Amino acid sequence: MPQTSSDHVTEARRAAVARLVPLQALLTDLGSVFTAAGHRLALVGGPVRDALLGRDSPDLDFTTDARPEETVRLLREWGDAHWDIGKAFGTIGARKGDHVVEVTTYRADVYREDSRKPEVAFGDTLEADLLRRDFTVNAMALELPAMTFVDPYGGLDDLAARTLRTPGAPEVSFGDDPLRMMRGARFAAQLGFTVAPEAVAAMTAMAERISIVSAERIRVELEKLLLAPDPRPGLELLVSSGLAERVLPELPALKLEIDEHHRHKDVYEHSLIVLEQAIALEDGPDGPVPGPDLVLRLAAILHDIGKPATRRFEPGGGVSFHHHEMEGAKLTTRRMKALRFDKETTQQVARLVQLHLRFHGYGDGAWTDSAVRRYVTDAGPLLDRLHKLTRSDCTTRNKRKAARLAAAYDDLELRIAQLRGQEELDAVRPDLDGNQIMQILGIPAGPEVGRAWKFLKELRLDRGQVGADEAQAELVAWWAREQAADDPSGATSAPSGGETTPSA
Question: Pick from 90, 94, 83, 145: which is nearest to 119 by CA?
């Protein structure tokens, strides 16, 4: 006998409540505080959705008909601490024991045509508040303290169908808050859901509307998408809808290019595969690159964005992308700055993009000690990420070639481990420091000391640890050559600072 709608709702409520059992005392207590004051309170959005999916939610979001001033009063009496930094938007936060909650007054926000910020309007009913939510799967609530399941827009059915549909007309929903279009792509990546056709059509028609949203809010959604278990569906939706043209134009631009190996449909497809392979190589919580790793994932999806600007058609029908890694690093920096990424993350991602071809530059020959030292030094703290990015960049279908590249990189990592056992590779420094340089050459602090230090650093990279005596001899010889080049008359003076000066 088929389930009735009532049976369906009852079972859903039971499943959600069972998942929320560890929080039931807290939910009942907080709900009772608001109802005793004559107000309604409901757990809403992500926590309800995740409970129905059998997932834990990091957030505890509530909605109420109480205005912010009243919410402040109630939470002050109930919690151990409270804060009202979001009061202008109707949101008040509180902590009780180990739990942090946010309670927001019923809302009905809208964006005006020329505004980057929503105009806050408080509502009067739970149903109206749920209508303004982004998708029906986030428009379900549990009214407290009775734990009454509220689902006026069919979120439960959409959850079962793994579909993202807006509670009202998508054109109205996305017009009220254009960032919801990016949230659709993010949830497709996070939850593995499909965005409803009418919502995709609205996203495509209204893509230009995303330009009124601040770069900071767009960046947050993009980060969440990239850190999802499977970012690919979300990125594909951004590109197919035209949203990527406004927020990450370098990505769809790759669809115009042909990969230099002629083994992939285009560089866009290659980049998505590299991202998937990089994610597969992320380590567990105790590994050198614990996933999800934003820097590695950004570098994977952006590593080839310099190709459109560097493409050249060669005689014989070939295609080249010379120095696309340098161009890509510049474009990466520019785009990440525009999206308001922090300076450190921007520098790390751009550096990985710049270095992603370094391994291939050494060819198939055996790596010299000097080459290994330079590879490790140039990568610095990004070495483990560079290992994973370089391995991920192999997407050839030629099994023999893939095996050869993997073996070559295995050999490189072995060489790095061997040299690390002999030298301090992670902090390669000259055999002489600045004070010793000044004493040996008899010069004061200044640019010449920096030049001398750089010479000794190159010597260290080329020949390894040579010891203080040999380093001094090489330094004196270099200094004599430098002075001779600066003074063609040959009237150079010998170093005067050291007690003993080896002859050049």
Answer: 90
